[in-house]
Structure formats: C-alpha cells, structure tokens
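Holo prediction. Input below; ligand is protoporphyrin IX containing FE.
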Amino acid sequence: MASSIVSMISIFLLFAMSGHALASLSPTFYSSTCPNLTGIVRAAVQQVVASEPRMCASLVRLFFHDCHVNGCDASIMLNGSNNEQFAFPNINSLRGYNVIENIKALVEAKCPNTVSCADIIVIVARECVMALNGPTWTVTFGRRDSLTANQTAANVELPPFFLNVSRLIANFQSHGLSVQDLVALSGSHTIGQGQCGNFKSRLYGPSLSSSPDYMNPYYNQSLRSQCPSSGGDSNLSPLDLQTPVVFDNKYYKNLINFSGLFHSDQTLWSGGDWTVAQLVHTYAMNQARFFQDFATGMINMGNLKPLLAPNGQIRKYCGKVN
Ligand code: HEM
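Structure of the complex:
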C-alpha cells in the first residue's frame, strides 16, 4: 500500500518536473508561460478582419472542422494528401490554414514551444466572433496537438449540407452535443460564403410550399443569378444575404422567411422538428439569448475529448508534427 502511494507520488512529480500539467483545461493555463497570448491573437485577428472580413468566417468553420473530428487537436492543420484537409467536406472549401500558421509563428516568437496549435484555433475562433460583433466567452486552454490526422473520420463525422434535421441531431448527439448546441452553433451561418454546388439542387427543381425544402421565390431568384443551372459550381453566395460579415441573429430570421442557403439550414425551421423550430424562433426574436446559447455551444464543442498531457505534443509548426 505504502509503496503504491510512493510510486503514485513519484509519477506525479515526474510529470510536474517535465513541465506537463496533469491537467484538465483551464482559462489560466498560460497565465505564467504566455501571459500576453490573448493580446497577440487579438491584434492579429484584427488585422485579418481589416484586410478580409470573410476570413474570420472561414476560421470559425476551421474550428468546427477541427473539433468535430476527435476533439480540438489541430489535426485539421496537418499537411499531406492523406490528411483531413483532403477529406470531402474540406477539400477546395475549408480555408484559413495559413492564417493559423502565421498566428502560431507570432505566438512562437514570444512564447516558444509553449502554446499548442489546438489552443490557437480555439482562441482565434472566439476572437473572430467578437471581431464581427458577436458574443464573447471564456476560453479554456491546455489542449495538445495530435500526432496524426484521420481523413476517414473527417469524411464520416463532418455533417454534409444535405442532411435533414433528425440526422443533424444524431450527428451532434454522437459528439456529445445537444439539440440546443446544434441550433445555436448553426447560427455561425450568419457569416461567410457557400459554393453554388452545395445548394444548386434546391434552385431549379419544383418548389412546393408544402415541401420541407421550400425556398422563398425572391431568394431563389436572387441565388439563380449567382448559381446557373449548369456550371459555376464554385461561385460564392453569402450564407446570410444581408449581413454576411456581421455576427447577428439574421440567420434565424432568414430561416423563418424560407431563405436558408443549404438544406441543412432550412431543415431547422421546415424539417418538422418542433423543439428545433421553437429554438429557431426564439433566436430570431431574441439575439441576446442566441448569443448566450452560442457561447455555451462553442465552449461545449471546444471542450470535447481534449487531448491532454502527457499525450500529443506542442507542435512548432502547425502543418507538421515535430
Ligand atoms: C450543422 C451542420 C452544418 C453543416 C451541414 C454545414 C455545412 C456548411 C457548408 C456546406 C458550408 C459552405 C462550404 C462551401 O461551400 O465551400 C459551410 C460554411 C460555413 N460553416 Fe457550416 N455547417 C454546419 C455547421 C456549422 C457549425 C457548427 C459552424 C461553426 C461553429 C459552422 C460554420 C460555418 C461558417 C462560418 C461557414 C462560412 C465559411 C467561409 O465563408 O469560408 N458550420 N457550412
């Protein structure tokens, strides 16, 4: 008994001396090792937004696509054609890898070998939402970077644009995320752009008002000019037509107006799930409530299955393992 207590204490001391926290995530994780982390990231994000506001939308999506595949472990950042960047939902679509790499270099210059790429992705997403007038929340730190990426998991886990509401709920629940998280986090589609190939099938078929995929005819008309029936698959349209670089609750007002861009958006209002539709209505009426639940959802998504010391590593460059 005494000897096993002694060995547990020595394992603890070993970790402590090797600089590993026997840790869970914490908002103060870098307080002594990189006290100005938030300041460095905030200044960099402000420059990014000034030169290309859409990039912040892309970075929020990058957070989702990292965290929804085995937790937030920066696996999305690993280069190489077998990796997640080449998975179907990401290829020719996900962007912002260079921005994360550049911010990591700024952080490395001040706090070498200290801050994980996974944590940088998480704080950049928060700073981006704030920079576009959205809510703020407390970010926790201490995630480690993975040693591998998993393209197969990315193909299976990331929800495609054609899912209906019950499959979206199942997808989020399989990641430990609630119906409220699904509806609130989908509100990210109040910023950014989508490619014609992902919504074209909704534009040119018959659109019956009784159909769960019914689209407002005026909205349909305006999308057709950007998205012809043949070709133009990579043409971009805003996910929220009126305020694509402002983080507001317009997305939900659009859904109620049958003006959601993707099937996976409109199904939240029209898909026949009353709990989900009620949440859409609440967020459309009450932006403060949306902001509160969005912040909760981002915290929940950021904290799932964290890779903690002594597993993983602090990558020097986000694009490759050390
Ligand atoms: C609920 C299931 C979801 C589906 C099916 C979905 C699907 C998509 C698709 C198809 C695009 C456009 C990609 C392209 O055309 O290249 C997109 C864009 C985007 N998504 Fe989602 N998404 C979902 C949830 C989320 C969540 C949870 C977040 C963030 C927390 C998010 C953030 C974004 C953002 C910000 C964009 C715009 C990116 C840009 O402009 O580069 N999405 N999403």
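Residues 54, 57-58, 60-61, 64, 93, 95, 159-161, 163, 168, 185-186, 188-189, 191-195, 198, 239, 262, 264 surround protoporphyrin IX containing FE (CB under 6 Å). That is the main takeaway for now.
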